[in-house]
Design goal:
Blueprint (H helix, E strand, L loop, with lengths): L30 E8 L4 E8 L8 E11 L7 H7 L1 E2 L3 E5 L3 H18 L10 E5 L14 H9 L17 E2 L2 E2 L2 E10 L2 E11 L14 H5 L13 E7 L5 H18 L9 E13 L15 H21 L4 E2 L5 E2 L3 H6 L1 H7 L1
Parallel strand pairs: 5-6, 11-12
Antiparallel strand pairs: 1-2, 2-5, 3-4, 3-12, 7-8, 9-10, 10-11, 13-14
Helix pairs in contact: 2-3, 5-6
């Protein structure tokens, strides 16, 4: 893919190395697919994170979730919190399309289980959302179940970022938001592990935007139609091959708020800040009476905390840097950040 990323400007967040693609798909087995709807009235879509190439309903993954601010309509979190497992792809879309996207996930899983002769009488589809109503005529509910299936069929290791899929109509810090991703690698003993993040960014007050500590938002607030309130939402999805328990994943997810804060988020009243995470290290086989799992020593958790914070911060910024300017259905225009990155690049790099 040829979209710009933060590192194309010589800006590196933190100290841990990133994976091969600096994306959530650096975690082995994870893939991402989009279906983008870009018409005169609809600027929206769906993005699907596939946790595994196996049947995730039969071979579940350890998971957790954390809600920093609950101004949102996400589905599937209740069972994840109760059981500590993920049995569904994770789909992201717009607020009023959650039900139709959930229907698409159900159709996908029922069809796959029937083909593989796996009994299925209940299923916990996981759908996250952001409200893209400023650029997208959200009342049309343009995303249908077939778009979910298309996104799943498109899922791959190399995926687009920016104003694509569920990020087509989102706004971040008053500029164009979207889908962004980043990864970090940590070494525990003799083994290397990856923590990857994918975000759907749709939050933030313009004046609060920071890049590696530089107050870029203060510089550009007078040049654009600034967002005066911190509202909108952000979905964050964490994947890792580090062997973590559900409780440990929950602890890591809580640290993602620090990464958001470093970009300028103040977690406003109208911002839904929702984190979902899973580990691919332990497979929870639905057909087994007992499960043998490995988990990380708690004394090593600081490595995971720091790596996740770095990846979250960079994923948000990548969602903006990769996005192009988009004109919405009412004529409202949200500019991409790249012209402002170039204008103030010397200041940003000198500051950091």
């Amino acid at each position: 893919m040829n979209e710009s990323r933060l590192r194309d400007y010589g800006i590196v967040i933190g100290h841990f190395p990133c994976g091969k693609n600096n994306a959530i798909t650096d975690v082995p087995g994870v893939s991402v697919g989009h279906c983008t709807i870009d018409t005169e009235s609809s600027k929206t879509g769906v993005t699907v994170i596939m946790p595994s190439q196996e049947n995730i309903f039969q071979k579940k993954r350890t998971a957790s979730c954390y809600v920093l601010n609950g101004f949102g309509k996400t589905t599937g979190l209740l069972q994840i919190s109760e059981l500590g497992t993920l049995e569904s792809p994770i789909a992201l879309t717009n607020t009023l399309n959650v039900g139709l996207v959930q229907e698409g996930l159900v159709e996908y899983m029922v069809s796959r289980c029937e083909k593989e002769q796996i009994p299925i009488h209940s299923f916990n589809p996981v759908v996250g959302e952001c409200n893209d109503c400023h650029l997208n005529d959200i009342k049309k509910r343009a995303v249908k179940p077939e778009h979910v299936l298309k996104a799943i069929s498109n899922a791959s290791e190399d995926f687009q970022q920016g104003d694509v899929g569920a990020g087509k109509g989102t706004i971040c810090f008053g500029l164009k938001g979207g889908i962004g991703s980043a990864s970090r690698q940590i070494k525990v003993g003799d083994s290397l592990y990856t923590i990857g993040i994918l975000v759907q960014s749709n939050f933030g007050r313009t004046q609060d935007l920071e890049i590696n500590g530089f107050p870029l938002g203060e510089k550009i607030a007078k040049e654009i139609e600034a967002a005066s309130q911190d509202k909108g939402s952000i979905m964050s999805v964490l994947a890792t091959d580090l062997p973590l328990s559900s409780r440990q994943i929950h602890r890591v997810l809580k640290r993602l708020g620090i990464g958001l804060g470093r970009t300028g988020s103040r977690v406003g009243h109208g911002s839904g800040d929702v984190m979902i995470g899973f580990s691919t290290a332990n497979v929870i086989d639905a057909s087994s009476d007992f499960q043998d799992i490995t988990i990380l020593n708690e004394n090593k958790m600081d490595l995971a905390f720091r790596a996740a914070i770095e990846a979250e911060e960079e994923a948000v910024l990548n969602s903006m840097v990769a996005a192009d300017t988009v004109k919405g259905y009412t004529g409202e225009i949200r500019c991409g950040i790249r012209p402002y990155m170039e204008k103030y690049l010397k200041d940003i790099t000198h500051f950091s």
